[in-house]
Protein backbone atom coordinates (compact mmCIF):
# COMPACT_ATOMS: atom_id res chain seq x y z
CA UNK A 1 0.00 0.00 0.00
CA UNK A 2 1.36 3.46 -0.94
CA UNK A 3 2.07 6.22 1.54
CA UNK A 4 -0.74 8.33 0.10
CA UNK A 5 -3.18 5.46 0.66
CA UNK A 6 -2.25 5.49 4.37
CA UNK A 7 -3.00 9.19 4.73
CA UNK A 8 -5.84 9.84 7.15
CA UNK A 9 -9.09 11.05 5.54
CA UNK A 10 -8.90 14.42 7.32
CA UNK A 11 -5.42 15.06 6.00
CA UNK A 12 -6.37 14.11 2.46
CA UNK A 13 -8.83 17.01 2.30
CA UNK A 14 -6.18 19.61 3.04
CA UNK A 15 -5.35 21.85 0.11
CA UNK A 16 -1.62 21.24 0.45
CA UNK A 17 -2.18 17.48 0.34
CA UNK A 18 -4.36 17.80 -2.76
CA UNK A 19 -1.74 19.94 -4.49
CA UNK A 20 0.91 17.33 -3.75
CA UNK A 21 -1.34 14.67 -5.32
CA UNK A 22 -1.46 16.49 -8.67
CA UNK A 23 0.40 14.87 -11.54
CA UNK A 24 2.86 17.66 -12.24
CA UNK A 25 4.29 15.77 -15.23
CA UNK A 26 0.95 16.21 -16.96
CA UNK A 27 0.74 19.88 -16.00
CA UNK A 28 4.29 20.42 -17.28
CA UNK A 29 3.58 18.75 -20.64
CA UNK A 30 0.49 20.89 -21.16
CA UNK A 31 2.59 23.99 -20.46
CA UNK A 32 5.24 22.85 -22.96
CA UNK A 33 2.67 22.36 -25.75
CA UNK A 34 1.05 25.74 -25.02
CA UNK A 35 4.51 27.40 -25.01
CA UNK A 36 5.27 25.88 -28.42
CA UNK A 37 1.92 27.21 -29.66
CA UNK A 38 2.75 30.71 -28.42
CA UNK A 39 6.20 30.56 -30.02
CA UNK A 40 4.72 29.53 -33.37
CA UNK A 41 2.04 32.24 -33.21
CA UNK A 42 4.81 34.78 -32.49
CA UNK A 43 6.76 33.47 -35.48
CA UNK A 44 3.94 33.54 -38.03
CA UNK A 45 3.02 37.09 -36.97
CA UNK A 46 6.49 38.19 -38.14
CA UNK A 47 8.07 38.29 -34.69
CA UNK A 48 5.18 40.19 -33.09
CA UNK A 49 3.16 39.33 -29.98
CA UNK A 50 0.06 40.75 -31.63
CA UNK A 51 -2.45 39.66 -32.77
CA UNK A 52 -2.27 36.04 -31.60
CA UNK A 53 0.64 35.10 -29.34
CA UNK A 54 -0.08 37.42 -26.41
CA UNK A 55 -3.75 36.44 -26.28
CA UNK A 56 -2.76 32.76 -26.43
CA UNK A 57 -0.40 33.20 -23.46
CA UNK A 58 -2.93 35.16 -21.39
CA UNK A 59 -5.71 32.67 -22.07
CA UNK A 60 -3.53 29.72 -21.19
CA UNK A 61 -2.30 31.38 -17.99
CA UNK A 62 -5.85 32.12 -16.84
CA UNK A 63 -7.13 28.67 -17.82
CA UNK A 64 -4.16 27.00 -16.11
CA UNK A 65 -5.36 28.52 -12.84
CA UNK A 66 -8.92 27.37 -13.62
CA UNK A 67 -7.68 23.85 -14.40
CA UNK A 68 -5.78 23.59 -11.11
CA UNK A 69 -8.79 24.92 -9.20
CA UNK A 70 -11.08 22.35 -10.88
CA UNK A 71 -8.58 19.63 -9.97
CA UNK A 72 -9.33 20.36 -6.30
CA UNK A 73 -13.04 19.61 -6.76
CA UNK A 74 -14.30 16.32 -5.38
CA UNK A 75 -15.73 14.04 -8.13
CA UNK A 76 -19.16 14.24 -6.47
CA UNK A 77 -19.50 17.79 -7.82
CA UNK A 78 -18.69 16.70 -11.35
CA UNK A 79 -21.14 13.83 -10.84
CA UNK A 80 -23.95 16.12 -9.68
CA UNK A 81 -23.33 18.62 -12.49
CA UNK A 82 -23.32 16.00 -15.28
CA UNK A 83 -26.99 15.85 -16.29
CA UNK A 84 -27.84 19.54 -15.64
CA UNK A 85 -24.78 20.66 -17.62
CA UNK A 86 -25.67 18.37 -20.53
CA UNK A 87 -29.24 19.74 -20.54
CA UNK A 88 -28.12 23.39 -20.48
CA UNK A 89 -25.62 22.86 -23.29
CA UNK A 90 -28.22 21.03 -25.38
CA UNK A 91 -30.56 24.01 -24.95
CA UNK A 92 -27.78 26.37 -26.10
CA UNK A 93 -27.19 24.24 -29.20
CA UNK A 94 -30.94 24.32 -29.90
CA UNK A 95 -30.97 28.11 -29.48
CA UNK A 96 -28.49 28.42 -32.35
CA UNK A 97 -30.90 26.59 -34.63
CA UNK A 98 -34.23 28.01 -33.51
CA UNK A 99 -33.56 31.57 -32.26
CA UNK A 100 -32.12 34.73 -33.88
CA UNK A 101 -29.18 34.50 -31.45
CA UNK A 102 -27.44 32.03 -33.78
CA UNK A 103 -24.41 33.66 -35.37
CA UNK A 104 -22.73 32.66 -38.65
CA UNK A 105 -18.92 32.52 -38.76
CA UNK A 106 -16.72 30.66 -41.21
CA UNK A 107 -19.72 29.51 -43.23
CA UNK A 108 -21.38 27.74 -40.28
CA UNK A 109 -24.12 28.89 -37.92
CA UNK A 110 -22.34 27.50 -34.86
CA UNK A 111 -21.93 30.53 -32.59
CA UNK A 112 -24.39 31.95 -30.06
CA UNK A 113 -24.40 35.75 -29.84
CA UNK A 114 -25.48 36.72 -26.32
CA UNK A 115 -24.62 40.39 -26.85
CA UNK A 116 -21.86 40.66 -24.27
CA UNK A 117 -20.14 37.48 -25.45
CA UNK A 118 -20.13 34.99 -28.33
CA UNK A 119 -19.78 31.33 -27.44
CA UNK A 120 -19.54 28.11 -29.42
CA UNK A 121 -21.80 25.63 -27.56
CA UNK A 122 -20.64 22.67 -29.68
CA UNK A 123 -17.19 22.90 -28.10
CA UNK A 124 -18.57 22.66 -24.58
CA UNK A 125 -21.12 20.03 -25.63
CA UNK A 126 -18.21 17.57 -25.81
CA UNK A 127 -17.59 18.09 -22.09
CA UNK A 128 -21.26 17.83 -21.20
CA UNK A 129 -21.62 14.63 -23.22
CA UNK A 130 -18.62 12.98 -21.55
CA UNK A 131 -19.91 13.77 -18.05
CA UNK A 132 -23.49 12.73 -18.82
CA UNK A 133 -22.44 9.41 -20.36
CA UNK A 134 -20.04 8.75 -17.47
CA UNK A 135 -22.87 9.31 -15.00
CA UNK A 136 -25.25 7.06 -16.96
CA UNK A 137 -22.75 4.18 -17.12
CA UNK A 138 -21.84 4.65 -13.45
CA UNK A 139 -25.45 3.92 -12.52
CA UNK A 140 -25.88 0.83 -14.72
CA UNK A 141 -24.55 -2.70 -14.64
CA UNK A 142 -21.81 -4.16 -16.81
CA UNK A 143 -24.40 -6.31 -18.60
CA UNK A 144 -26.51 -3.25 -19.42
CA UNK A 145 -23.40 -1.52 -20.77
CA UNK A 146 -22.54 -4.59 -22.86
CA UNK A 147 -25.94 -5.10 -24.51
CA UNK A 148 -29.41 -3.99 -23.43
CA UNK A 149 -32.37 -1.99 -24.73
CA UNK A 150 -31.27 0.68 -22.24
CA UNK A 151 -28.35 1.45 -24.56
CA UNK A 152 -30.87 3.43 -26.59
CA UNK A 153 -30.52 6.12 -23.92
CA UNK A 154 -26.77 6.81 -24.40
CA UNK A 155 -27.24 6.43 -28.18
CA UNK A 156 -29.85 9.18 -28.00
CA UNK A 157 -27.62 11.31 -25.77
CA UNK A 158 -24.92 11.10 -28.45
CA UNK A 159 -27.18 11.26 -31.50
CA UNK A 160 -29.19 14.39 -30.67
CA UNK A 161 -26.23 16.80 -30.29
CA UNK A 162 -24.42 15.06 -33.17
CA UNK A 163 -27.31 15.73 -35.56
CA UNK A 164 -27.88 19.28 -34.33
CA UNK A 165 -24.21 20.24 -34.66
CA UNK A 166 -23.90 18.52 -38.04
CA UNK A 167 -26.89 20.56 -39.27
CA UNK A 168 -25.25 23.90 -38.34
CA UNK A 169 -23.14 22.68 -40.29
CA UNK A 170 -20.05 22.02 -38.15
CA UNK A 171 -18.82 18.68 -39.41
CA UNK A 172 -15.59 18.74 -37.38
CA UNK A 173 -17.32 19.21 -34.00
CA UNK A 174 -20.06 16.73 -34.95
CA UNK A 175 -17.41 14.16 -35.83
CA UNK A 176 -15.63 14.65 -32.49
CA UNK A 177 -18.93 14.40 -30.58
CA UNK A 178 -19.92 11.18 -32.35
CA UNK A 179 -16.52 9.52 -32.07
CA UNK A 180 -16.08 10.57 -28.42
CA UNK A 181 -19.46 9.05 -27.57
CA UNK A 182 -18.55 5.86 -29.44
CA UNK A 183 -15.22 5.68 -27.57
CA UNK A 184 -16.99 5.97 -24.21
CA UNK A 185 -19.43 3.20 -25.12
CA UNK A 186 -16.46 1.02 -26.11
CA UNK A 187 -14.59 1.74 -22.86
CA UNK A 188 -17.75 1.06 -20.86
CA UNK A 189 -17.88 -2.47 -22.26
CA UNK A 190 -20.12 -2.43 -25.34
CA UNK A 191 -20.38 -5.84 -27.00
CA UNK A 192 -17.90 -6.44 -29.84
CA UNK A 193 -20.74 -7.65 -32.05
CA UNK A 194 -22.52 -4.33 -31.65
CA UNK A 195 -19.28 -2.44 -32.33
CA UNK A 196 -18.65 -4.44 -35.53
CA UNK A 197 -22.25 -3.94 -36.70
CA UNK A 198 -22.09 -0.22 -35.97
CA UNK A 199 -18.79 0.17 -37.82
CA UNK A 200 -20.19 -1.69 -40.85
CA UNK A 201 -23.32 0.48 -40.83
CA UNK A 202 -21.24 3.67 -40.59
CA UNK A 203 -19.08 2.62 -43.54
CA UNK A 204 -22.19 1.78 -45.58
CA UNK A 205 -23.79 5.16 -44.81
CA UNK A 206 -20.74 7.28 -45.76
CA UNK A 207 -21.20 7.28 -49.60
CA UNK A 208 -24.92 8.28 -49.61
CA UNK A 209 -24.27 10.78 -46.80
CA UNK A 210 -21.49 12.44 -48.82
CA UNK A 211 -23.66 12.60 -51.93
CA UNK A 212 -26.99 13.63 -50.43
CA UNK A 213 -26.53 14.64 -46.79
CA UNK A 214 -23.78 17.25 -47.08
CA UNK A 215 -23.76 20.87 -48.16
CA UNK A 216 -22.01 21.54 -51.46
CA UNK A 217 -18.91 23.04 -49.83
CA UNK A 218 -18.61 20.06 -47.45
CA UNK A 219 -18.91 17.63 -50.35
CA UNK A 220 -16.23 19.59 -52.20
CA UNK A 221 -13.93 19.20 -49.19
CA UNK A 222 -14.31 15.43 -49.28
CA UNK A 223 -13.78 15.25 -53.04
CA UNK A 224 -10.79 17.58 -52.70
CA UNK A 225 -9.33 15.28 -50.06
CA UNK A 226 -9.52 12.42 -52.56
CA UNK A 227 -7.92 14.48 -55.36
CA UNK A 228 -6.56 17.88 -54.22
CA UNK A 229 -4.60 18.38 -57.46
CA UNK A 230 -7.87 18.54 -59.43
CA UNK A 231 -8.39 22.13 -58.23
CA UNK A 232 -4.98 23.40 -57.02
CA UNK A 233 -5.96 27.07 -56.86
CA UNK A 234 -9.43 26.47 -55.41
CA UNK A 235 -10.69 23.80 -53.05
CA UNK A 236 -7.40 21.87 -53.15
CA UNK A 237 -5.27 24.89 -52.24
CA UNK A 238 -5.26 24.36 -48.46
CA UNK A 239 -4.13 20.74 -48.54
CA UNK A 240 -1.51 21.34 -51.25
CA UNK A 241 0.07 24.25 -49.37
CA UNK A 242 0.03 22.25 -46.14
CA UNK A 243 1.82 19.34 -47.82
CA UNK A 244 4.41 21.74 -49.27
CA UNK A 245 5.05 23.17 -45.79
CA UNK A 246 5.34 19.70 -44.25
CA UNK A 247 7.72 18.41 -46.92
CA UNK A 248 9.91 21.50 -47.22
CA UNK A 249 10.87 21.34 -43.54
CA UNK A 250 12.95 18.20 -44.10
CA UNK A 251 14.64 16.63 -41.09
CA UNK A 252 15.63 19.71 -39.07
CA UNK A 253 13.45 22.42 -40.63
CA UNK A 254 14.20 25.79 -42.19
CA UNK A 255 14.69 27.50 -38.85
CA UNK A 256 12.54 29.50 -36.45
CA UNK A 257 10.77 32.31 -38.26
CA UNK A 258 12.07 31.21 -41.65
CA UNK A 259 9.16 29.16 -42.96
CA UNK A 260 8.29 30.56 -46.37
CA UNK A 261 4.81 29.03 -46.60
CA UNK A 262 3.68 30.56 -43.31
CA UNK A 263 5.72 33.77 -43.33
CA UNK A 264 4.65 34.67 -46.87
CA UNK A 265 1.05 33.65 -46.08
CA UNK A 266 0.79 30.90 -48.67
CA UNK A 267 -0.39 28.58 -45.91
CA UNK A 268 -4.07 29.32 -45.07
CA UNK A 269 -5.35 29.44 -41.47
CA UNK A 270 -1.75 29.08 -40.35
CA UNK A 271 -2.59 30.22 -36.81
CA UNK A 272 -5.46 27.74 -36.30
CA UNK A 273 -6.13 24.64 -38.41
CA UNK A 274 -2.68 24.44 -40.04
CA UNK A 275 -0.35 25.55 -37.26
CA UNK A 276 1.18 22.06 -37.09
CA UNK A 277 2.29 22.50 -40.72
CA UNK A 278 4.20 25.59 -39.60
CA UNK A 279 5.92 23.58 -36.85
CA UNK A 280 6.98 20.97 -39.43
CA UNK A 281 8.24 23.61 -41.87
CA UNK A 282 10.33 25.53 -39.33
CA UNK A 283 11.52 22.62 -37.15
CA UNK A 284 11.24 19.69 -39.55
CA UNK A 285 10.69 16.07 -38.66
CA UNK A 286 12.51 16.45 -35.33
CA UNK A 287 10.30 19.32 -34.17
CA UNK A 288 7.00 17.83 -35.31
CA UNK A 289 7.92 14.43 -33.84
CA UNK A 290 8.76 16.10 -30.52
CA UNK A 291 5.38 17.84 -30.40
CA UNK A 292 3.58 14.59 -31.22
CA UNK A 293 5.64 12.79 -28.55
CA UNK A 294 4.40 15.35 -25.99
CA UNK A 295 0.82 14.63 -27.03
CA UNK A 296 1.38 10.88 -26.75
CA UNK A 297 2.89 11.34 -23.28
CA UNK A 298 -0.12 13.42 -22.20
CA UNK A 299 -2.50 10.71 -23.42
CA UNK A 300 -0.58 7.85 -21.77
CA UNK A 301 -0.28 9.65 -18.41
CA UNK A 302 -3.99 10.50 -18.54
CA UNK A 303 -4.93 6.89 -19.33
CA UNK A 304 -2.91 5.79 -16.32
CA UNK A 305 -4.81 8.27 -14.16
CA UNK A 306 -8.14 6.96 -15.47
CA UNK A 307 -7.16 3.37 -14.74
CA UNK A 308 -6.37 4.17 -11.09
CA UNK A 309 -9.75 5.74 -10.27
CA UNK A 310 -11.83 3.73 -7.80
CA UNK A 311 -15.19 5.08 -9.00
CA UNK A 312 -16.64 3.91 -12.31
CA UNK A 313 -17.73 7.51 -12.98
CA UNK A 314 -14.15 8.74 -12.57
CA UNK A 315 -12.74 6.08 -14.90
CA UNK A 316 -15.32 6.68 -17.65
CA UNK A 317 -15.24 10.49 -17.40
CA UNK A 318 -11.43 10.67 -17.49
CA UNK A 319 -11.30 8.20 -20.39
CA UNK A 320 -13.89 10.25 -22.28
CA UNK A 321 -11.90 13.46 -21.82
CA UNK A 322 -8.79 11.69 -23.09
CA UNK A 323 -10.77 10.42 -26.08
CA UNK A 324 -11.82 13.83 -27.37
CA UNK A 325 -8.33 15.26 -26.75
CA UNK A 326 -6.79 12.37 -28.70
CA UNK A 327 -9.36 12.82 -31.48
CA UNK A 328 -8.37 16.49 -31.79
CA UNK A 329 -4.73 15.47 -32.28
CA UNK A 330 -5.53 12.58 -34.63
CA UNK A 331 -8.00 14.45 -36.86
CA UNK A 332 -5.93 17.63 -37.11
CA UNK A 333 -2.74 15.66 -37.80
CA UNK A 334 -4.46 13.64 -40.52
CA UNK A 335 -6.04 16.79 -41.93
CA UNK A 336 -2.81 18.75 -42.39
CA UNK A 337 -1.10 15.70 -43.93
CA UNK A 338 -3.89 15.24 -46.46
CA UNK A 339 -5.06 11.98 -44.88
CA UNK A 340 -8.48 13.39 -43.93
CA UNK A 341 -10.78 16.13 -45.26
CA UNK A 342 -10.33 19.65 -43.87
CA UNK A 343 -13.04 19.85 -41.20
CA UNK A 344 -11.85 22.69 -38.97
CA UNK A 345 -10.59 20.70 -35.97
CA UNK A 346 -7.74 22.56 -34.17
CA UNK A 347 -4.56 21.07 -32.73
CA UNK A 348 -5.20 21.32 -28.97
CA UNK A 349 -3.25 24.02 -27.09
CA UNK A 350 -1.11 24.59 -30.18
CA UNK A 351 -3.75 26.33 -32.33
CA UNK A 352 -5.09 29.80 -31.58
CA UNK A 353 -8.63 29.76 -30.22
CA UNK A 354 -10.35 30.43 -26.93
CA UNK A 355 -13.26 27.97 -27.00
CA UNK A 356 -11.17 24.92 -27.88
CA UNK A 357 -8.50 25.81 -25.30
CA UNK A 358 -11.12 26.29 -22.59
CA UNK A 359 -12.71 22.94 -23.41
CA UNK A 360 -9.37 21.13 -23.25
CA UNK A 361 -8.26 22.78 -20.00
CA UNK A 362 -11.57 22.06 -18.25
CA UNK A 363 -11.24 18.46 -19.44
CA UNK A 364 -7.80 18.18 -17.90
CA UNK A 365 -9.16 19.76 -14.73
CA UNK A 366 -11.45 16.73 -14.51
CA UNK A 367 -8.61 14.31 -15.26
CA UNK A 368 -6.44 15.87 -12.54
CA UNK A 369 -9.42 15.82 -10.16
CA UNK A 370 -9.67 12.09 -10.84
CA UNK A 371 -5.97 11.77 -9.95
CA UNK A 372 -6.25 13.79 -6.73
CA UNK A 373 -9.41 11.97 -5.59
CA UNK A 374 -8.66 8.55 -7.06
CA UNK A 375 -9.79 6.76 -3.89
CA UNK A 376 -13.19 8.49 -3.84
CA UNK A 377 -16.30 6.31 -4.10
CA UNK A 378 -19.60 7.54 -5.54
CA UNK A 379 -23.16 6.20 -5.00
CA UNK A 380 -24.85 4.15 -7.71
CA UNK A 381 -28.16 6.03 -7.54
CA UNK A 382 -30.16 7.17 -10.58
CA UNK A 383 -31.32 10.49 -9.11
CA UNK A 384 -30.35 13.85 -10.61
CA UNK A 385 -28.61 15.09 -7.48
How would you describe the overall organization of this protein?
The protein is mainly α and 385 residues long. Helix content is 67%, strand content 3%. It has helices at residues 9-12, 15-21, 24-44, 53-71, 75-98, 121-138, 142-146, 152-167, 171-188, 192-213, 216-226, 237-248, 260-263, 275-308, 312-336, 354-372; strands at 102-105, 108-113, 118-119. The chain has a 3-stranded antiparallel β-sheet with strand order 1-2-3. A hairpin with a 4-residue loop joins strand 2 and strand 3. The longest helix has 34 residues, at 275-308. The chain starts with 8 loop residues before the first helix and ends in a 13-residue tail after the last helix.
Which short descriptors sum up this protein?
single chain, 385 residues, mainly alpha, three-stranded antiparallel beta sheet, 16 helices
Quickly describe the structure.
This protein has 16 helices and three strands.
Please tell me what the overall shape is: globular
Helix and strand run: HHHHHEEEHHHHHHHHHHH
**Distance between the first and last residues' Cα:** 33 Å
In the predicted model, the low-confidence regions spanning at least 5 consecutive residues are 1-12
Q: Count the E strands.
A: 3
Mean pLDDT: 84
Strand arrangement in the largest pleated sheet = 1-2-3
Question: What is the beta-strand fraction?
Answer: under 5%
Give the helix level as a range of percent: 55-70%
Number of helices: 16
Cα gyration radius (Å)? 21 Å
